[in-house]
Write a structure and sequence with these properties.
This protein has about 325 residues and is an alpha+beta fold. It contains seven helices and 13 strands. The chain has a five-stranded antiparallel sheet with strand order 2-1-5-4-3, with helices on both faces. Strands 7-9-10-12-11 form a five-stranded mixed sheet, covered by helices on one side. It has a three-stranded antiparallel sheet with strand order 6-8-13.
């Protein structure tokens, strides 16, 4: 029986009606170190907790009702929690009381971690829903038809999904800039033998930066696929990332440089679209940085400064 109890991690003390210890076993080493005798009254905790448990045992005997409580003690490794189950045992000789003691510290620790993760998941989910709501609202304002809205909205949600997949795959740690850019390019530039150049520092972005920079890249890519280099089948754009300083703090700057074929210019209708709002306002505000979007004859430039709290440089080897 004692071997079976050791497998469960449950310790026990059986006391007579006058609370004298009759039998005990498998008690937690923290409460009863090897070579230490159990007190005659079965009090392993002492102080106020000992008095409280003795009272609960007396009540269990009188009322013949079982009860469960919890006791927390302090050790060098932190707080230790025990579940105490008190069961009256009726017998002709007056019976006794059985106390089961289980160390539940690990279980409570896992529960606390799970609650923290669930709160974080709820927070991130609300943020993601807020981004989707903003995309839907702004896309609807710019749409000229239902079909146009659906096409544009689906594209933006798909882009967000690509970024979210990277964040999820990394256990919510974020994503590398190069991987994010390549993922966004894949649907619009499938030529693997002649990939779009992504150079400089491959910074590891925070989850927040991953989602919003993914949106910025999507708008730039869609613009290029509509009437820019990608639309013409010309690989004349680059994405480069380098270190800089922003508000006297370390930062990185991402540059999108696109040369338009045949000196094309961006159509006037694009000057005040949601895409421009995303690039110049939504993304830099969301990451606490700044952005410059330049559309000139034969050239498009986008400069996005990302503050240090939204990224880390794990390796400085340029790829």
């Amino acid at each position: 029986m004692e071997m079976a109890l050791k497998k469960t991690g449950v310790g026990f003390i059986y006391q007579s009606a006058d609370l004298s210890v009759v039998l005990s076993g498998n008690l937690p080493a923290r409460l009863l170190p090897a070579g230490t005798a159990i007190p005659e009254n079965g009090d392993l905790f002492g102080g106020d907790e000992g008095v409280r448990l003795t009272a609960l045992k007396g009540a269990a005997l009188r009322e013949q009702q079982s009860t469960t409580t919890q006791v927390e003690t302090q050790s060098n490794g932190g707080a230790i929690s025990y579940r105490i189950e008190i069961e009256p045992v009726p017998a002709a000789d007056g019976g006794g009381v059985l106390t089961l003691i289980t160390d539940i510290s690990d279980t409570l620790h896992r529960e606390r971690i799970l609650k923290t993760l669930l709160r974080e998941l709820s927070h991130r989910s609300k943020n993601l829903l807020a981004i989707i709501q903003g995309i839907a609202t702004q896309t609807a304002r710019q749409a000229l038809s239902l079909d146009g809205f659906l096409t544009t909205f689906r594209g933006r949600i798909q882009s967000l999904s690509y970024s979210q997949d990277l964040v999820t795959d990394s256990s919510w740690r974020g994503a590398y800039l190069f991987t994010l850019a390549e993922r966004q390019f894949n649907s619009y530039w499938p030529d693997q033998e002649n990939p779009i150049a992504v150079t400089g520092i491959n910074a590891h972005l925070s989850p927040n930066a991953t989602l919003h920079i993914g949106l910025a890249l999507h708008e730039l890519i869609v613009n290029s696929a509509s009437h820019g280099a990608i639309a013409a089948g010309v690989n004349s754009l680059t994405v480069n990332c380098f270190e800089t300083v922003f508000n006297a703090q370390k930062a990185i700057e991402m540059h999108w440089i696109e040369h338009l074929p045949d000196s094309k210019t961006v159509p006037k209708s694009d000057e005040h679209t949601f895409a421009r709002t995303v690039l110049e306002r939504v993304v830099p505000i969301a990451i606490g940085g700044k952005a410059i979007y330049i559309t000139d004859s034969g050239r498009i430039e986008y400069h996005l400064t990302v503050p240090s709290h939204e990224y880390e440089i794990i390796t400085r080897v340029e790829e």
